[in-house]
Design a protein that fits this description.
The complex is a heterodimer of chains A (254) and B (323). Chain A has 254 residues and is α/β, with parallel strands linked by helices. The longest helix of chain A has 16 residues, at 36-51. Chain A has a single domain, classed as Rossmann fold, CATH 3.40.50. Chain A is 25% helix and 30% strand. Chain B is of the alpha/beta class and 323 residues long. Chain B folds into 2 domains: 5-182, 3-Layer(aba) Sandwich (Rossmann fold); 206-321, Rossmann fold (3-Layer(aba) Sandwich), CATH 3.40.50. Chain B has 9 helices and 17 strands. Classes of the chains: A alpha/beta (254), B alpha/beta (323). Chains A and B meet through helix 3, helix 4, strand 7, strand 8 and strand 9 of A and helix 3, helix 4, strand 7, strand 8 and strand 9 of B.
Chain lengths: 254, 323
């Protein structure tokens, strides 16, 4: 069982985000870390390969500036190798362009399944996994909250508006997993040391033989949303609930 | 089909057209001259008058999918209709599970980019501008496509008003599921409905949500109790859904439901940007949280800095006493 996992490296979400005034896109030039939502895909891949009795987990990632620290984290968790497509041409690339790049990168190594997070924590586009599936001509199951493999079939519990569906899908397939689907492991010291010597293959757009990279949408303007004014704040001294009741009375809810 | 036509994905649950579908058709009517819907897993004649009352001129019915996931089947139907009829000026889908899958597949078929998490679309075809909330709704980004081809948009729930429209009797055309797309696809073998008590989360006038500050899963009972007393729906932050305390159907936020109640009561929720995007449009917000620096207090009309384990039981007792 060989699994490719899409990993995005993003600015630390704990740090305040900012917009580049010129390109009006999210600044991504600082230090990048592995997106938390992708750690679930990495963990899931490691567990599935383990259960299947062995195989390789290949990370695929795209970054405009050659950043690898997020990939090292995933390698330290136990992934076999990483393929990083890094090219200044990819600055401001949209989800479809990213999907084309990653689909090419995925095809460099044999795979039975592609795993990805449902959406990144910085861009939230949420279409990439299924775009990759369509590009590769594969079936897909998005929003998986439970995944198991039996032979050449993957079984998934897929979220729905009302609950969830049991879905079966022939392999190879693309599966996107939700946060919380598994508990991502912390890299061990041994893992961190081993990750230093694991291969990260760095490629340019030209290496992938992709025809064209076009920026197809642009941000016209960024403005402040209508600000919501904060109201009154009280320290609870045992009578906090009374303030709430009074507020509910005002709203005629009690 | 002209560039002044807008396609809207019609989503139906148990025979009922979703509110988001109604919102999309309403707005689509303002963007171009003609609105056409794609429906699946429903008898189109059963929803025709409803879709027509919002302004839909035509329904392309893909019919029953026999358990197949909508993404590849509906995207294939859209692409095949476009071969004969031409592509529309824009395609609007809700930011739902199936909506995103369909849009993603269509984007590859047509080699066109998508704009998702849209909270507004304005202008008139072919010059549309979309709006996106970022940084937890603090800033609004306005974007447009640089190409002049079909605009593909996934739109968050409650982005548009549902407007009265002069009723139209939509024409129904069948576009049956194609055999070539049926082979080797994912299939639903069983559907599970996670029962919820009280009104629907995204339609309730009062929403009471709990977060990590509740301490442990058992304490979520307080939230359900409080919601019941206020005739509201219980909700949750992503943190406690990920932790498995409550089902995903309770989640409010970026990856969960968007709610717009007249009162949102947040208990033990700090107010991560991911959460705020889903509830910021509430008319009134009350927050109860131990940490006085919690971002939720910046948008709360009333904030109580205190321990949820003390304040909420007192509040429940006070409300019960009033009967």
């Amino acid at each position: 069982m060989n699994i490719a996992v899409c990993v995005k490296q993003i600015p630390d979400p704990a740090a305040p985000g900012s917009i580049d005034p010129e390109s009006k896109t999210l600044r991504r030039d600082g230090k990048l870390i592995m997106d938390d939502s992708d750690s679930f895909g990495v963990e899931m891949a490691l567990q599935l390969v383990d259960k299947a009795g062995g195989g390789e987990v290949t990370l695929v990632s795209m970054a405009p500036n050659g950043e690898t620290s997020g990939l090292r984290t995933a390698l330290a968790m136990g992934a076999t190798r990483a393929v990083l497509v890094s090219d200044p041409k990819l600055h401001g690339a949209d989800a479809l362009t990213t999907a084309k790049v990653l689909a090419k990168a995925i095809q460099r190594y044999p795979f039975d399944m592609v795993l990805a997070g449902t959406e990144s924590s910085d861009g939230y586009t949420g279409t990439l996994p299924v775009q990759i599936a369509e590009l590769l001509g594969l079936p897909s199951v998005s929003f998986a909250k439970k995944v198991s493999i039996d032979g050449a079939v993957v079984s998934v519990e897929r979220q729905t508006e009302a609950g969830y569906d049991d879905v079966t899908c022939p392999l190879p397939a693309v599966v996107s997993v939700t946060a919380g689907v598994v508990e991502p492991r912390y890299p061990s010291f041994k893992g961190i040391m081993a990750a230093k010597s694991k291969p990260i293959e760095t490629l340019s757009v030209a290496d992938l033989e992709l025809d064209s990279i076009a920026v197809a949408e642009e941000v016209q303007a960024v403005h402040d949303a209508q600000a919501r004014q904060g109201g009154e704040i009280f320290e609870d001294d045992g009578s906090g609930f009374e303030k709430v009741v009074a507020f509910l009375e005002q709203l005629k809810l009690v | 089909m002209g560039v002044r036509t807008v396609w809207v994905l019609a989503e139906v649950t148990d025979g009922v057209v979703s509110l988001t579908t109604a919102e999309l058709i309403s707005q689509a009517s303002t963007l171009g001259d003609r609105v056409e819907c794609f429906s699946f897993n429903v008898d189109p004649s059963a929803i025709a008058s409803t879709l027509g009352s919002y302004g839909a001129h035509k329904i392309w019915s893909v019919g029953e999918l026999g358990g197949r996931l909508a993404g590849p089947v509906v995207a294939h139907a859209m692409a095949s209709v476009a071969v004969n009829e031409g592509r529309p000026g824009a395609v609007l889908v809700g930011q739902t599970y199936d909506g995103r899958d369909i849009l993603a597949r269509l984007s590859v078929k047509w080699d066109l980019p998508v704009l998702t998490n849209v909270v507004n679309v304005t202008g008139e075809l072919p010059d549309l501008v979309s709006e996106h909330a970022i940084f937890g709704g603090e800033k609004i980004v306005q974007a447009h496509f640089t190409h002049s081809s079909t605009g593909l948009f996934a739109i968050r729930a409650k982005s548009f008003e549902i407007r009265d429209h002069q009723a139209v009797e939509p024409e129904i055309v069948n576009v049956p599921m194609s055999e070539e797309v049926v082979a080797d696809q994912a299939k639903i073998t069983r559907s599970h409905v996670e029962e919820r008590v009280g009104p629907k989360l995204d339609e309730a006038a009062v929403v009471v949500s709990g977060g990590r500050g509740l301490g442990q899963a058992e304490n979520y009972q307080m939230i359900e109790e409080l919601a019941k007393l206020l005739h509201g729906a219980p909700g949750a932050s992503r943190a406690i859904v990920d932790a498995g305390w409550v089902p995903y159907a309770y989640q409010v936020g970026q990856t969960g439901k968007t709610v717009k109640p007249s009162l949102y009561l947040a208990v033990g929720i700090s107010g991560a940007t991911q959460h705020m995007v889903g509830m910021k449009a509430a008319k009134n917000i009350i927050a109860i949280n131990k940490d006085k620096e919690a971002p939720i207090f910046q948008i709360a009309d009333l904030g109580i800095v205190g321990d949820a384990h003390k304040v909420v039981p007192q509040l429940i007792d006070a409300l019960r006493a009033r009967g």
